[in-house]
Amino acid sequence: MTLSFSPADSDSPGTVRTQANSNVAAGWPGLIETYRSYLPVSESTPVVTLQEGNTPLIPVPSIAEIVGKGVRVFVKYDGLNPTGSFKDRGMTMAISKAKEEGARAVICASTGNTSASAAAYARRGGMRAFVLIPDGYVALGKLAQALLYGAEVLAIKGNFDRALEIVREMAERYPVTLVNSVNPYRLEGQKTGAFEVVDVLGNAPDWLCIPVGNAGNISAYWMGFCQYHQAGKCDRLPRMMGFQAAGAAPLVNGAPVTHPETIATAIRIGNPASWDKATAAAQASQGGFKAVTDDEILDAYRLLASREGIFCEPASAASVAGLLQVKDQVPAGATVVCVLTGNGLKDPDTAIKHSDSQFTQGIEPDPAEIAKIIGF
Ligand SMILES: N[C@@H](CCOP(=O)(O)O)C(=O)O
Predict the structure, then answer these.
(1) Ligand 1: which residues within 6 Å by Cβ?
(2) For residue 106, which phi and psi values (nearest 5 degrees)?
(3) Which of 79, 117, 129, 318 ranks highest by number of CB atoms within 10 Å?
(4) How far apart are CA 254 and CA 256, in angstroms?
(5) Alpha carbon of 350 to those of 10, 146, 164, 239, 343: distances in Å?
(6) How many Å lie between the centroid of ligand 1 and the Cα of residue 76?
(7) Cα separation, 129 vs 123, whole angstroms
(8) DSSP codes, 161-230
(9) What per-residue confidence (pLDDT) applies to 7?
(10) pTM of the model
(11) Average pLDDT over residues 72-87
(12) Of 274, 310, 316, whose CA–CA distance to 298 is shortest?
């Protein structure tokens, strides 16, 4: 079937103007339509959507077994969003509002996921996308996404923190909208992750474990839980536990890290933009921040894939690594949700390099030979 768009319709294909718009597909309509009453949008907001959200909350019994004490553990697998990360939740809002305000171009700094998401939504909304990335530190799949979506990608000789300083300055001086999580609409969109968790569980979890890089997502989840609590959708609030990579753990150390280093490139950030909001969330919820080593991250990454069939990106596994590190502090019978922020397919190099599985090459195409190797 070929979809055609009327020339009279000046909006781009992914744009929804009203609920009656013929571009709205059947089924899940995306986050803005689903949570419209909780979001700063109006009927005149041109909704740019890829039908993001509605990601699964998956029980992970092998992780629960390690934690023990009858604790229930779920992962919120946000790697199943349209561009493979939680950023899409924020980007549908940021790009829709940018379009409403007449923006023609957006800009972001990125360790990879934001660039892919910004590029996809900006192009769908008919805008140019400029992305600044730290040269050599963005996973292959993320770079491939940004390029194919049609972003203009600039790799700088510097880390993410420097790139963010530059794009902040550029957005002040030039006609381009900043779509990193310092844009308040990003957090508004991302808070819907908390709504979905509550909608599925029927209440907030006791603990929410989440990777922390630029610190926008922990802040957004806390906003979401608080807003739903106020609306009477849940009768408790979770303890917010943020996990950073040990080589990039400014919130754990209490000071910025000048040269952050970790295998989890998505959270290779030394000076988080949402520092104050994240700290407030951890304090208000009696949670906190902990560091996990790259080895702990890789162990959790392999465990999720090989025992649960869930392939997340390395940074995402920080939430599970963190839970396993502090498991003795989890109360018996508690419900814990670990957020998996991105899809493992984004970083094939790390997966191949750190897999424990046997990979034998150059085998003769002969059943007897193959049976011998397998050990039948
Ligand atoms: N990990 C992020 C860093 C930027 O975070 P943002 O939420 O402020 O856009 C990325 O994917 O680039």
Answers:
(1) 108, 110-114, 160, 180-181, 213-214, 216, 266, 273
(2) -125, 160
(3) 318
(4) 7
(5) 43, 19, 25, 31, 12
(6) 18
(7) 7
(8) HHHHHHHHHHHHHSS-EE-STTSHHHHHHHTHHHHHHHHHHSS--SEEEEE-SSSHHHHHHHHHHHHHHH
(9) 29
(10) 0.94
(11) 98
(12) 316
Binned at pLDDT 50, 70 and 90, residue 16 comes out as low
Which DSSP state fits 52? -
Cα 233 from Cα 240, distance rounded (Å): 18
Output the DSSP codes for 267-298.
G--SS-TTHHHHHHHHHHTT-EEEEE-HHHHH
Q: C-alpha dihedral over 345, 349, 354, 360, to 10 degrees?
A: 100
What does the pLDDT read at residue 26? Answer: 75
Quote the CA–CA distance of 306 and 304 in Å, as a whole number.
6
User: Closest ligand 1 atom, CA of 217?
Assistant: 7
Name beta bridge partners: 147. none
Whether this model's ipTM surpasses 0.85 comes out as: yes
Average pLDDT over residues 156-162: 98
> According to the model, what pLDDT value does residue 25 have?
59
**How far lies 11's CA from each of 22, 42, 253, 269, in Å?**
12, 17, 47, 37
Contacts of residue 182, defined as CB under 8 A and 6 or more positions apart, other chains included, come to: 168, 216, 273, 274
Ligand 1 center to 67 CA (angstroms)? 30
Ligand 1 atom 12: residue of nearest CA: 110
First-last CA distance in the chain: 48
